[in-house]
Structure formats: structure tokens, C-alpha cells
Amino acid sequence: MSTNLAEIIRILKEADGKPVSGEELGERLGVSRAMVWKYISSLKEGGYEIESSPKTGYILKVVPDMLYPEEIKDGLNTTLIGNNIFYFAELESTNSFAKEMAKEAEEGTVVIAESQKKGRGRLGRNWQSPKGGVNLSVILKPNIPLDHAARLTLMTGLAAANTIRSLGLDARIKWPNDVLIKDKKVCGILTEVDAEMEQVDYIIIGIGINANVNVDDFPPGIRENATSLQKELGTEVNRVEFVQKLLYEIEQQYIKFKTQEFSAILSEWINLSDTIGKNVTIMTPSKMVEGKAIGITDTGAISVRTKDGKRVNLIAGRCVY
Ligand code: BT5
């Protein structure tokens, strides 16, 4: 959206339901009334409902349920995450896009798509990303060794769970990267890292949340184990406010990540864990470990006590229970 469009929205919002004349808008923007009319038309095309009367002027009636950067930034309480937001109505994958630009991008840059054609999960799995969901990626550039990267997946899971909990829902975290409500997956996280000499260059954290989506439309095999915020709440969520909260939560956790021992995040994570104490099977490309999940290590690995009493730590894998 151009700055002039954003400025018109800002002025109309400020007017709080009172009409603003085309003349006034034109003067404040330094453009002709005809140009104002063009801007208004393009805002209407973008879903804004604007009432116009030749006598009194323009009134903003409805802001669309779209994750426009201007809407997200209006009320966003962060200093790093979301300073730059790239927005797409549709994209193959926000993680793929973020990866292409990560080297040059500023830390905290966010990529959002209303829907994804090839939303990605881990190990080539897919992520159903219809309109109404929240699909976004955040570019982080922490100065950490590669073997600390898994901590950021846990950190993000915690931020997502806290955001969902703020809606009054009992969100729990399933190791390593899922957020569940009543045992069903509402959010998945895909962390992708680029490193040089064992030192992280950048990390993309991709977050997919079923916000206002109908999970019954998902293919069989996925829909049975999925839920959405809308389904759990019985009403749609305001996605702009939700994303504002999510970015704020990520920033708060990231500040903690950089300034405190990881145990500060880990203890909060464990409080919301759905996995610790359960009998689990962890599958990695090379092995399968069965046993009781007894803890998470300082690097983010799951500790499993196997039947023969051994303690096995696994840094990544698919966790089934
Ligand atoms: C994940 O992988 O859960 C990571 C999902 C990350 C998605 C975000 S969206 C923004 C960013 N851009 C991307 O391209 N990706 C990230 P994994 O743990 O591998 O789980 C994938 C499995 O979850 C699939 O095989 C399905 O069984 C299931 N699944 C797929 N879509 C789902 C959905 N919308 N809700 C619940 N479960 C789903």
C-alpha cells in the first residue's frame, strides 16, 4: 500500500466515523480531489468499506479482515519484530520468500501471506494454508552457535502458545514444534537456519496458525488432528490484533533469549508442555526411540527414558503419542 493510501486510512480512522471531505484529504496529502477519489477507489478494491457522499465527504465504515502491514503496524508494540513487513495476498511459502531475502534483510523483518500455495512443514511435509489463516515468517539474526538454533523453535512455540492462551484457550506445546488445543494441532512452526563455520547467519522462523479457517476442508488424514481458533472460540478472531500480539510475544521471548539464561524460557515452556510425562515415540530419519518423555535439555533436545532405563536425548524428530 502506498504511503498516501495509508495516510488516508489514518485520517479516516482518526475522524472516528465523522466524514472527511475530499477537499480536506486532498489538501492534507497535497494532491488533487480527483487523485483522492482514485485512492479511495483503490482502497475499496482492497476491501475497505468507505461511504462517500458528495456533500459531506468520506467515512470509513469497515476495515477488511486482511493482514495489511499498515493495519498491523497501527498498534504494534514492538521495536524490532515487524519494523519491515512484506505482504502478499498469495505466495508459495513465506519461509521460501524470507530465505531468498534473508542475507540482505534487517533482523526482525516479517513476511506475511494471506494464503500459501506450497506451505511447507518439516522434511518435505506440507502445511495447509488457506485464506483466513496466519502464515508468516520472521527473520532473526542471533549471534549463536548452530547447536543452539533449536532453542528458537521452543521459544517461538512458547510465544505462539501464549498468544493463543491470551484468547482464553488452553493451548499446550507438543515437542518440538506444534501448538495444540485439546490434543489437536492449531499451529506449526518451521525453523530454518543458515550457518557458516557452525555459527548462525540467520534463522527463519515460520509460523502457521489455523485462525479463521474451516479445518473440515482439509484433506482426510489432516483434518481429524487439526483445529482452528475460530472452531475453538465459536467465533472469528481479529487476525490483525492476533498478529500484533504474536509479534509482541515473539519479541518479548527473543529479548529474554538474548539477555537471560535459556532456563528462563525453558521453565515457561515446560509449564505449557503437553509432551513431558507422556509415553512417546520419537522418529528421526535414522532411528526410532520409544519411552517416557522426561525433560528437555538446555539445547532443546527431548530426553526420553527408554524401557531399559537409558536416557536418550534427541534434538529433532517426529514425536508421536
Ligand atoms: C509443521 O511441520 O508443523 C510446520 C508448519 C509451518 C508452517 C509455516 S506457515 C508460514 C511458514 N511458511 C511455510 O512454508 N511454512 C511455515 P510438521 O511438524 O512437519 O507438520 C506437518 C504436518 O502437519 C503435515 O504432514 C500434516 O499432517 C499436518 N498439517 C498440515 N497442515 C496443517 C494445518 N493447517 N493444521 C494442522 N495440521 C496440519
Secondary structure layout plus pairing:
Layout: H1 3-15, H2 22-29, H3 33-45, E1 49-53, E2 57-62, H4 69-73, E3 85-91, H5 94-101, E4 110-116, E5 134-140, H6 150-165, E6 171-174, E7 178-181, E8 184-196, E9 199-209, H7 229-233, H8 239-259, H9 262-271, E10 279-283, E11 288-296, E12 302-305, E13 311-314, E14 318-320
Parallel strand pairs: 3-4
Antiparallel strand pairs: 1-2, 4-5, 5-9, 6-7, 7-8, 8-9, 10-11, 10-14, 11-12, 12-13
Helix pairs in contact: 2-3, 6-8, 6-9
Bound molecules: biotinyl-5-AMP (BT5).
Biotinyl-5-AMP binds next to helix 5, strand 5, strand 8 and strand 9.
Q: Concise description?
A:
The chain is α+β, with helices and mostly antiparallel strands.
Q: Name the shape in a single word.
A: elongated
Which whole number gives the mean pLDDT? 96
Low-confidence residue ranges: none
Spatial gap, N to C terminus: 45 Å
- Pairing-aware structural class of the strands and helices? alpha+beta
Strand order of the largest sheet: 3-4-5-9-8-7-6
Number of helices: 9
Q: Which ligands accompany this protein?
A: biotinyl-5-AMP
The portion of residues assigned to helices is 25-40%
Describe the structure.
With 321 residues, the chain is of the alpha+beta class. The strands form 3 sheets. A 7-stranded mixed β-sheet has the order 3-4-5-9-8-7-6, with helices on both faces. It has a 5-stranded antiparallel β-sheet with strand order 13-12-11-10-14, with no helix packed on it. Strand 3, helix 5 and strand 4 form a beta-alpha-beta unit. The mean pLDDT is 96. Bound molecules: biotinyl-5-AMP.
